[in-house]
Design goal:
The chain is of the alpha+beta class. The protein folds into three domains: 3-110, Glucose permease domain IIB (Gyrase A, domain 2); 167-270; 285-493, no CATH class. It contains 20 helices and eight strands. The strands form three sheets. The chain has a four-stranded antiparallel sheet with strand order 1-2-4-3. It is globular.
Amino acid sequence: MDKNRATAEALLPLVGGAGNVASVAHCMTRLRLGLHDRSLVREAELRALPAVLGVVEDDTYQIVLGPGTVARVTPEFEALLTRPSRTPSTADVLAAKGEAIRVSRKARNATPVRLLLRRIADIFVPLIPALIGCGIIAGLGGLLTNLRWLPSLAPALAALSAGFMSLIAVFVGHNTAKVFGGTPVLGGAVAAVIVFPGVAHVDVFGRQLAPGQGGVLGALAAAVLAVRVEKWCRRRVPEALDVLVTPALTVLVAGLATLYGLMYVAGHVATAIGHFANWLLTYGGSGAGLVLGGLFLPLVMLGLHQALIPIHTTLIEQQGYTVLLPVLAMAGAGQVGAAAAVYVRLPRNASLRRTIRSALPAGLLGVGEPLIYGVSLPLGRPFVTACAGGAAGGGFVGLFHQFGTAVGSTAIGPSGWALLPLLAGDRGPGAALAVYGGGLLTGYVTGFAATYWFGFTRTILTDLNTPGPPPTTTAPASAPMSPPPRPHANPSAI
C-alpha cells in the first residue's frame, strides 16, 4: 500500500472517523481539520503515529506532518471521506453535538484580530508554492545572466519567473473573495483591473494611474469590497435577474471604487511599508533584528507568521526582494542550536535523541514545527533559549544592514539552508550569502550555548536524563502544552 494512503487511513479513525470531519485543508506542514467533536480524537494514539510530528489545537485541529508529506497525505485523506460511511446514523448525532462544542469554543477562544489574521493566511498560503518556484527560477535566471551563460535561455527564465508576479493581484483577489464568502472569479475580475495596462490612460483627479499601483494590498481591498457589494446584491436583486445584475454591479461598483480610490490609497500604503522596512533595519540595525528574530518563533508556534505574507509580497513587488525574511529566518537557526544542545545534554534519553535526529534535517531547511512541538516547547526552557538564538542571528543580519549590506529573499516560504538559492541584496549574491550564513552560524551557536547553560533546571535535567521516553514538563505560561511525539525511525518521514 502507498505510504501516504496508509498514513491517511491511520489518521482517520483517530480523529473520530469520517463523520467527525467537517472540513479538510493543509498549509506547508500541517493537515488542518475542522472537527465536529474534538473529544472523539484519540490524541495519544495520534501522536504515536510515526508520520505525526506534533498536534496543534486552534480554530482547526492541526496535525503536523511536515513539508511535502502533508501535500501528499491530504488528497488521500479527502478520498477516504468520500467513501460511504459505515455508521451513517451516528454521524448526525456527532455533528449536532460537535457543532455546539465548536461554536462555544470558537466564541471563547477566537478574537477579531486572530480571526482576521487567519483569513489573511488562508488567502496567501495557497500562493506560496508558486512564489517559491518563481523565486528559484528568478535566481537561476539572474545567475545565468551574471555568468553570461546560455544567453538565449535567460530571457525565457525571466518571463517564467515574472509572469506569476505580474498577475499575482488576480490570484489574491480570487482567494480573497473565496475566503470572505463571495464568488472567487468576481474577486479576481475586480482585482485584475489593478494590473491591466490600460489603467495608465485613466485620469484620476488629474493624475494618471500606473499598472500594478497598490499591488496585492489593493487587490485584497478590492476583492473585500466586491464581496460586500455581491452580498448586498444577492439580498436585494430578484432571483430572475440575479445572474445578470449581481455580477455586473459587483464588477462595476467595486471596479470603479478601485480605480478612483483604492489603488491610490493602497499604493501609498505599500510605499510606506517598503520605506518602513528599510528604515527599521537601516536605523534600528541590530536592535530591530534582535526583536524580529526573537519574536518570530512564538508567531510560528501560534501559526500567525502567515499573516506577514502580504508584507513580504509587497516588498518583493517593490524592491525585488523582502529584507524581513532573512532576519525572521534566524529564529529557525536558534531552534536548531537549542535542539542540538538538548541532544548533548541528555545523552541517556534515547527516545528524545531519536526525535531530534529525525527532526533536525527539517530544521536545517527552515521547517521549525517538528522541533518546536517535538522538542523545545514541551521541555519549556529550551523554547525560550531558542528564541534567544533567533534574536542573536537576527541582530547579526540587522547589524550588517545598518552598515549598508542589505540581504533579502526573492520569494517567501523557505528559510534555513533552503533560502540560500533565493538570496539577493544590494551588494550582490556573494555578500548576501556571507551575511546570511553568518547569521545562521550566530543563531546556531547562541541557541546551543543558551540552551546548554540555561535550558534546564537541575531537577528537570536529572529526570529527563534517563533511558526511555521523557516525562511531560511544564512549558512557558504563554505557550500551549504539546507533549513530544513518538520519535521517528526514518528522517525521510518528516
